[in-house]
Write a structure and sequence with these properties.
With about 400 residues, the chain is α/β, with parallel strands linked by helices. It folds into two domains: about 240 residues, Aspartate Aminotransferase, domain 2; about 140 residues, Aspartate Aminotransferase, domain 1 (Alpha-Beta Complex), CATH 3.90.1150. The chain contains twelve helices and 13 strands. α4 links the parallel β3 and β4. The structure holds pyridoxal-5'-phosphate (PLP). Pyridoxal-5'-phosphate binds next to α3. This is cysteine desulfurase. Keywords: Iron, Iron-sulfur, Metal-binding, Pyridoxal phosphate, Transferase. Its EC number is 2.8.1.7.
Length: about 400
Amino acid sequence: MALDKPIYLDHNATTPVDARVLEAMLPYLTTDFGNAASVNHAYGERAKAAVSRAREQIAELVGAEAKSIVWTSGATESDNLAVKGVAEMYREKGNHIITCKTEHKAVLDTCKHLAERGCTVTFLDPDEFGRVSAEQVADAITDETILITLMAANNEIGTLHPIAEIGALAKSRGVIFHTDATQAVGKIPIDLDAMGIDLLSLSAHKFYGPKGVGCLVVRRKGPRVRLALQMHGGGHEGGMRSGTLNVPGIVGLGAAAEICRREMPTEAPRIQALRDRLHQGIEGQLKYVKLNGHPTERLPNTLNLSFAYVEGESLMLKMPRVAVSTASACTSESLEPSFVLRAIGVPDDLAHGSIRFSLGRTTTDDQIDVVIEQVLQAVNDLREMSPLYEMVEEGIDPATVKWTEH
Ligand SMILES: *Cc1c(COP(=O)(O)O)cnc(C)c1O
């Protein structure tokens, strides 16, 4: 008998390819394998037509023009192209970039790299919920500011920045606005024009498309954004990103976008209701649980909880039937607590006991019941073994204990 696979609640890390997406992709791996740049014969023509259709599908999901889409290998590349591309192209105009401490590493590390090369970067502090305000951004703008880069939704805690307000501010001050919308796209409505976004990064594998494909949306008018090339070669994508197009991947990205656009109005509330039931099921039956992230301005699928007197890694080991992420997973092998939780002021000991549950299209009601039961059992078991927890239950504040010194 095959072992049951664990329940997958790690959709912010990646999602399975939707069966309908796979079906749309298959012909472009086999019969319609042409190079989209070989337009002198039918093979190339068919590939090119499929790519054009995918442009329309993405454009419609994010309120952009089809022509403004530049295909990439994913959001990491899109973020690099946006941030470095602007910094290098607008160097004459200024060298100041505004971002936030809780951005994805693809943006943070790119900004740090530019800071080492003479750019001035302001890393804004978010509030306790992980949000920055438009006023904070306004206060940080100088005559030298050329770029504001702030994510639409945070991958660890799900918090949403006030993107439309920041977009309007950027417009009024003549500063280019990039948003890493990798977690937002497909989960909440995003509209490039209505939100005043100039550059937008997204990635297929975060919304039921394949891995290794994404795009950067580059505004073409009001203002026309120019970027310094990061990939030299055949001059594909209007010269913005050379390299033979990943046609099956792009077709998958387009199909995934269309499904999200059609199904978001019913899917998002369904997932949010499950997410809230999970939250209540845990919080209602366990003490010392803290929500990380904004209570309302948050992705509908994301629940990041800190369990005091418990260690996140041990908690995961105690729940082999549940695939979730510890807060430190994004900073990979290191034992450092999550820099995102640190930036919102979660103490290190609590941060170490944090778990991100991220729900998705395949999450069911029954799965949530199992997960609640597993979490309660695991946390209770671990706390029973914790001397610290015992003290707290006996009314002793561990902070007041005088430990013997050696
Ligand atoms: C996953 C993710 C990325 C990286 O995307 P890839 O396509 O895997 O390179 C960037 N930003 C955010 C917010 C993400 O969640």
